[in-house]
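re: ur question from the group chat, yeah i did fold both. here u go
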Amino acid sequence: MNTIIFEAEGLSKQYGRAAALQNINMQIQKGDIYGLVGENGAGKTTLMKIISGLVYPTKGTFQLLGKSSEEDIARVRRKMGILIEHPALYPHMNAAESLSFYCKIYGITDSDRIKNVLNLVGLTDAEHKNTSDYSLGMRQRLGLAIALLNEPEFIVLDEPINGLDPTGIVEMRKLLTKLVHEKGVTILISSHILSELQLLATKFGFIHKGQFIKEVSVEELMQSAETQICIKTVEVEAAINVLKNDLNIHSSTLSASGEILIPKDLIDLEQLMSTLIREGIPLEGISLSTANLEHYYMDLIGE
């Protein structure tokens, strides 16, 4: 039986007349990397703040790490790691001093813990540098290090790869995956870089205008769209004519970027390429497309 880390029933948050969240029902299970997907203002950060105790819901209930009373939830939050929006850092402190400050808050006495988390997030070489001199990406790394100090069971991360360069994004993905597989950590994460979220998450929850509209596993996402052959050429009309007249393919479509799309099961890729080349169609590229998280979300909300 799967252990439920977080479960919401009818969770809502109202700011005056504006509804930030409306009747949210969702469940996060142990071992999930749960990707929260939604536009700016959809309610992702509000939901994360409710889970983290920074905001109280207007109505509805939720369970956290098996607890449902306010007193018990407040206690089990000590088993959580949280990075929401920008990490709270003192500019005159360096990384080691910042982590030492949070160790006192958490009651952590293990002197090696600071070195361990700095090594995990790749900030060992910058531990004596004041955080005022940190780049945005370095601040995000230090925020994650703070979230990992108490060896949490559940981590809530709002835009953790914000400001990271491509190498840093890959390293962050590897680190989070390692925490799940080796430490048994459960993660709730949001990101505007949906292509990266698709590589990381095992389950996705979609929020639109404060409403929870769907939840799918990564397997369901991959099965949601058939694989297509993408043909990139400057002679689009001529290529489509070859497809129709020579290969009897009448179901091609054009993508927003001008690529010709054909369902993969309609033709052998080698036959397609040889025919197009024989007919003098200049090819800039042929590739295979799979299910895309961004397209899936845009289809869900009807855009």
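okk and heres the other one u asked abt
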Amino acid sequence: MRHRALTWGGVIRAVVFFGVLTAFPFAVTAHWIVNMAVFTLIYAGLASAWNLVGGLAGYPSLGHAAFFGVGAYAEAIYFQHRDVGANGLLPFFALPVIGIGVAVLGLAVGWIAMRTRSDVFAIVTITLLFVAQTLAFNLTSLTGGSQGIGLPGAPFDPDTYERPFYLVLLLLLAVSMAVTWAALHSRIGLSLRAVAADEERARGVGVHVRGVKLLAFAVSVGIAAMIGAVWAYYMTFVYPQFAVDPLITIGMVLMAYLGGRGTLWGPVIGALIVVPAQQYLAYQYGATQLYLVAYAAIFLLIMLLMPRGILPTIVERLRRRAAAAARPDGAGRPVASAPKEVVS
């Protein structure tokens, strides 16, 4: 497997992408559009974080919504009766503490869950999700149970209320993608891909299998928890059925698969497609949950047309076309695919 180092093309893509997204809330003033962008960034960050475990390591976690909920409740419980500051930024400064705390929790959970593999791991993690949701409903003295728990509203300018949340979420997305890029271009990334391909063989050639799996899982759930904390502050109220919702996990997994799991830009592309479409359907059809039908349709289309996802499929086709054009005897003969490399 051949890895590409930092290139000018990659730097330019990142600068343009994050430059455009940074300028977006300053150029667009319609609240409903910026609100849609906020939720798009939430899921882009979640899908990118999930990709560290489900994409690179090949461990399809279905319990990430539990850690998203833990982050949301940690933020809500701490600031329930505390001042958020005159400028409203104190809850954002708490994010690193929440992320590190949940990452440590993730190490403990992963140490047990990652003794299983593949389908069994998926079952264990989704069981964890329902356990977390049950605890959120029943620990009423801590979480408020089904009545929920509230946070003080942010004292931001009503005309630009969404902007601080948007920018913090954009920063978390940048962190998640930077971690993914570093993993893809390091020994850790090679180790994770070796684990995904054949865990026993990876262990046989000296890969510290348990260590790299736990590291990926801890970082992944830590980022998911920080995003959950921002979501809680944005919504100002946390209910168990929304904070620990299986549909959150389904959404991030769908977006990673749609764009191309195991790649840098794939999960982000998936989020940029799915979330605006889901939000549009919600605005058009209200609470009919028609977007669930769309989720099922997208999964079906991916499995039938692009089982590897949008980005890997496009890159592979372009590579084959370039290889065919480079043949001195024309492009009439079948051309074997070029050696695979990390898509970034």
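fwiw on the second one: The longest helix spans residues 209-235. The beta strands are 149-150, 237-238. idk if thats what u expected
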